[in-house]
Amino acid sequence: MTRIDLHCHSTASDGTLTPAELVRAGAAAGLDVMAITDHDTTGGWSAAAEARPDGLRLVRGAELSCRWLGAEQWPIALHMLAYLFDPTEPRLAGDLARLRTDREQRAEKIVARLSADGVPITWAEVYGYAAGGSVGRPHIAQALIRAGLVRTTNEAFASRWLGARYFVPKADLDVFEAVRAVRAAGGVTVFAHPRATARGRVVPDELIVQLADAGLFGLEADHEDHSPAERDHVRELADDLGLVVTGSSDFHGTHKTVQLGAFTTTPEAYEKIVSAATGVPVLG
Ligand code: AMP
Ligand code: FE
Ligand code: FE
Ligand code: ZN
């Protein structure tokens, strides 16, 4: 059996294993194919490529922070997985750089609000936890844990902390721009956890229809944040629209409990993604 996990984070964003540790852990977990998909960065690609164990195929990717401006007043945030794109393509590289800058400014604002309320954490501490990678709320959660205010990352995402009271939105990339930019860079897009209602509002199916028209390639159906009914729904929608279906762990090391290979993608879907991409090759 070929085990394929197409959504994994490293310390290049909010995972807790370095890119080198991540690929070794992937091989140790019995994966044949793994993707490195850090939030808004390709910063982990070269270290992952250098450390890649023989026998593990590495798909280089990223998870793009996107928004959709629907009919409502507030944009809906969504995540777009992008695979095998050319990281030097200027437009996409510029989009990613802007997203990372915005992440820093936004995290700094969140820390300022917490400090103003007397929470003893600093931007320097949080920035240090990110260690040069894309800054995210899990790094602020780490500071809240250190300060003894919460015990787990999950607790830090409760509404009294980073979930609502101290929530500041990111600027994010228009989702149609994301699909276009990834395609222009020779990559393939898969909509990450499109039905993850626990994280907030989700987009309507009608947007997914429009995204399919715009060049979206697949939908992630099997994900821990989807119920069995949601997984079935996503699979049916993908069938209707001619999109590939993926399953993946969305591994984040100890920032989450899910393990590598907890959900997997079929070899057929994987081969379609690889065949459609022209940006960079799979390694191995
Ligand atoms: P951000 O990207 O800064 O908006 O933070 C969102 C990230 O935090 C997601 O990519 C997840 O990795 C993580 N996350 C979101 N919700 C939770 C949660 N309830 N528990 C742990 N991690 C979470
Ligand atoms: Fe994350
Ligand atoms: Fe995500
Ligand atoms: Zn992810």
What does this entry look like structurally?
This protein is α/β, with parallel strands linked by helices and 284 residues long. The protein is built from 10 helices and 8 strands. It has helices at 19-28, 45-51, 90-116, 123-130, 137-146, 153-156, 175-184, 205-214, 228-241, 267-276, and strands at 4-5, 33-39, 57-68, 76-83, 173-174, 188-191, 218-222, 244-247. α9 (228-241) links the parallel β7 (218-222) and β8. The mean pLDDT is 97. Adenosine monophosphate binds next to α5 and α6.
Labels describing this entry:
284 residues, eight-stranded mixed β-sheet, 39% helix, 15% strand, globular, binds adenosine monophosphate, binds fe (iii) ion
